[in-house]
Amino acid sequence: MKASTPAAAEPRSRDADRSQLAILEAARDEFSQRGLAGARMDSIAERAGLNKRLIYYYFGSKDDLFLAVLEGTYADIREAEQRLHLDEVEPVEAIRRLVSFTWHYYLEHPEFITLLNSENLHRAAHLKRSERIQEMNSPLVALLDGVLERGRRDNLFRAGVDPVQLYISIASLCYFYLSNNDTLSAVFGRDLRAPKAMAQRLSHMTDLVLGYVLR
User: Fold this and answer.
1) Which residues lie closer than 8 Å to 126 by C-beta, 6 or more apart?
2) Which residues have C-beta within 8 Å of that of residue 177, sequence separation ≥ 6?
């Protein structure tokens, strides 16, 4: 049999990359709509337009595929956060940008919330197996820590603010409002998705976070 040449191998490599990307995109949609338990590999294959055997070939199992989707989801938001260049703007503006970005990212990527909901139901069993997730998230912690330190040196921010706790607070302020919006609207008899309510929410969250970090 004739050996494969580099030129012949390259198109096959590109085909494999495209197939894996199609599977991940289809799986993200399936998992975000149906959860891990309700998702079906047949449906993912149909969405991707590929043979189901390829999914098992590239990803091994449904649980492994779900982990790959979660890792990709976190990689996407961390990459987008890096494009904010928070280290290049003054500290107060950096905090404002991070709150606004997190809010709008969750709005524009509702699958992020639903995938996290599904993983929390499984007590983070998949993320605990990840060899990448902590390394993936550490640059954000370092970046936010740098912003806080610059603010402290400029006598703007108080000392002792934990960047991890601060980010969790920012994320939770955005996450809870959006993931529970239907029930909150029903309980309080207000349309909390109305444009005015959404603008008020962003302003409120920003004021809360800055009220905590400012001296």
Assistant:
1) 63, 66, 67, 70, 119
2) 184, 192, 201
Q: How far is Cα 95 from Cα 199, in angstroms, rounded to an integer? A: 17
**Token pair 């962003």 in the structure block, residue:** 202
Distance CA 181, CA 176 (A): 8
Q: Return d(Cα 170, Cα 11) in angstroms, integer.
A: 44
State phi, psi for 201 to the nearest 5 degrees: -65, -45
Residues lower than pLDDT 70 in the chain: 1-11
pLDDT for the residue numbered 120: 96
In terms of Cβ atoms closer than 10 Å to its own Cβ (0-12, 13-18, 19+), residue 12 is exposed
Whether the Cβ atoms of residue 156 and residue 214 lie closer than 8 Å to each other: yes
pLDDT score of 14 = 81
Q: Helix, strand or coil for residue 209?
A: helix
pLDDT value for 11: 65
Q: Model pTM?
A: 0.91
pLDDT in tens, 45-100: 999 999 999 999 999 999 999 999 999 999 999 999 999 999 999 999 999 999 99
**What does the angle CA 77 – CA 172 – CA 89 come to, to the nearest 5 degrees?**
55
Return the amino acid letter for 1. Answer: M
Residue with tokens 């495209």: 18
State the maximum Cα–Cα separation within the chain, in Å, rounded to a whole number.
Answer: 73
